[in-house]
Amino acid sequence: MIPYFKNKYLQTLLQCFLLGILVLANLQCVLRPSGDLREFESYFPHENPNSLIQKGKVRVTFLGTTSILLDDGETQVLTDGFFTRPSLWKTAFSKIESDPIILASVLEKAKINRLKGIFVCHSHYDHAMDSPFVAKLTNAKLFGSNSTINVGLGAGLDMANMEEFQIGKPIKLGKFVITVLESKHTPPFRILGKTNATDPDFPNITSPLIQPVKAFAYIEGGTFDFYIQHGKNKIVIKSSTNFVKGAYDKIKADVLFLGIAQLSLQPKQFQEEFFDETIQKLNPKFIIPIHWDNFFKPLDKPLEPNLKLGDDFDANMNALLKRTAKDQIQVQLMQGFETIDLF
């Protein structure tokens, strides 16, 4: 109860004070992780093999969000390469830019020293922001949409070091063969009245994007999945929680890297269709969830689930585990810089 004050000014001041406390309490709640990794500890392999990669084998290192390093001992292939991970405060209220010190540190720690190609899932900042700078530091080629090419041009990357996606055309890098598949971004959502939906009048980045810029300058520019073959082994990397119906009708995968961000926030019918179009059609031996971690936290700290503000990690994982138990498919989570041998 708010006590009665004859002085209206003091009464208004007290109301504002109590409202502020309420807002801060709510913010503290929604800015917490949306799940507890301890509940899923048994799904982390904690292997981190240090031995040389045997001929014909493929090793993977998870670098947060949808940054996945594949390595066969001769050639490395990377998706996205988003390592700077600016804070929530900086992302929301100021311009952002790649941090060369962080990039160099990650490249060294992850032993990224024979990288041949970087494949960008789409051109939002949490995928494309660092990729051209990683390409420059490693002399790798950047592959992406026209929007990603403009991110690269803004970073000073030469066209000779970039290639625009051609849907369905295989790209050979060493023993890896990568085919780009058309996909869809996770359905749009609203936070604090703002949406991440693509403006139909401005669907692409149409000119070189020069840092520093606001996060919203990184326009999606189309979303893509990657079908990767290495000998007889097959991998699919799907960064976003959405699907193109029939896209996987003619392929199978041994390993599926599956984006689960906001999965449980979607209608039940969507969730079932999503699983049918991915897990059921690809029939993988095991699944590694991706895009589950809070990318406002630095990569040199243990990864935490996405914030309650816009996700529910526990519910996402439980939905996935329920479906994979039905299909008897193994699920493995990976921490930042964690490494496992896929084949």
From TrEMBL:
Leader peptide range in chain numbering: none
| Domain annotation Metallo-beta-lactamase: ranges | 92-169
List residues traversing the bilayer.
none
Query: InterPro entries in the record, alphabetically?
Result: Metallo-B-lactamas, RibonucZ/Hydroxyglut_hydro, UPF0173_UPF0282_UlaG_hydrolase
Q: Which PANTHER family match?
A: UPF0173 METAL-DEPENDENT HYDROLASE MJ1163, UPF0173 METAL-DEPENDENT HYDROLASE MJ1163-RELATED
The protein in question is named Beta-lactamase family protein
Q: Which organism is it from?
A: Leptospira yanagawae serovar Saopaulo str. Sao Paulo = ATCC 700523
